[in-house]
Each structure stands twice: as C-alpha cells, then as structure tokens.
Design brief:
The chain folds into 2 domains: about 60 residues, no CATH class; about 80 residues. About 65% of the residues lie in helices and about 0% in strands. It contains 7 helices and no strands.
Length: about 180
C-alpha cells in the first residue's frame, strides 16, 4: 500500500484488502522462493510423461520467471522473501490475488483473443483466481473471529467450493472490446 492510500483514512482499518503492512524484516529462515522452486522441481519430477510433453518448456520458463521475481523482490526490499518476516502472509496473498483477478479480467477485455482462447482464460484462469480469493478471504475471516485455523477449515473449503461451482457453472462473460463506455 502506498503512503497516499494509507492517508485515505488514518487510523481506520480498511480490512485485509487494503491493510498496510510493515516492510519485511530479514531473518535466518530459508527464502520462500527457494522452497517454491524446489516444490516446482518436485511436482515436475512426479508428473506423468504425457503431462510433461504437453507442458513443453513451461516448467523451465516458469522457474526462470520465479527466479526473476525473486531477484526483483530482493532488489526492491533489500531482502529475500522469508517466512516470519513481520508481515501477514495471508493478507499479502489475498491482496495479490485481488490484483491478479483484475489483471486477468483486464486481459480478457484487452487481448482481442479468439473465442476459444477467451473461454480458456475465463474458465481456467479468471474463475480459478476468484475461487482462490474466496478461499483465502474465508480463512482471513475465520482467523479474525478467532477460529483460525482448524475451526474455519470446513467453512473455508465450503465457501471456496460454492464459489468454484458457481463460477464454473455460470454463464460466460461478455467479450468486451475495450471496457470503455461509448
């Protein structure tokens, strides 16, 4: 959150979508990007050959992109992303998911995609992001009620499943040309 956003309502808690957080504090824990890259390698090693063939260079490209994001974060914050860094990682996750949702929807409007590709992005990316955001928001709500993590697991899973079913079964989105009103 920028200083300008924080000044919109000083002292007012705007909720997990906009709550300011401190700068990350460096510590001795393993950087999270290292863990994620190891997870990616593990998933890749366990994937069936047909899936690997269909993915082509995507896993290598994804790993390179992750390493680039790690380098950018280290340059921007002066430290790698580490657990226990003084920030609320679920709030960070939720805020980034909200941004991803709006960027995915913008891509559907901006890209001028062929109809079949529009449907793939809408169903496999945009709607998945909506369901993930619902799950994380349900977890944040449970935690705020003091029901985190065990007591709210079922409610979070139920909320995510309900939204996933709603978005998966919903009508297609309009394929807007520019998103601008005439």
């Amino acid at each position: 959150m920028t200083a300008a956003t924080a000044n919109l309502a000083p002292g007012l808690d705007l909720g997990p979508a906009t709550r300011p957080q401190p700068a990350p504090t460096p510590n001795g824990h393993r950087p999270v990007w290292e863990t994620v890259l190891a997870d990616l390698q593990s998933f890749h090693a366990a994937a069936p050959a047909a899936a690997l063939a269909a993915l082509g260079d995507v896993p290598a490209d994804l790993a390179a992109d992750m390493a680039a994001r790690d380098a950018l974060g280290r340059a921007r914050y002066g430290t790698p992303l580490q657990p226990f860094n003084g920030r609320d990682s679920f709030a960070d996750c939720y805020q980034e998911l909200l941004d991803a949702i709006v960027y995915a929807r913008q891509a559907l409007i901006d890209a001028g995609l062929p109809e079949d590709m529009h449907e793939v992005i809408e169903h496999e990316v945009y709607r998945t992001l909506l369901a993930l955001a619902a799950l994380v928001r349900a977890m944040l709500s449970g935690r705020a009620r003091g029901e985190w993590p065990a007591a709210d697991r079922e409610a979070a899973a139920t909320a995510a499943a309900a939204l996933a079913a709603a978005v998966a079964g919903g009508a297609g989105l309009p394929q807007a040309n520019s998103g601008r009103s005439a």
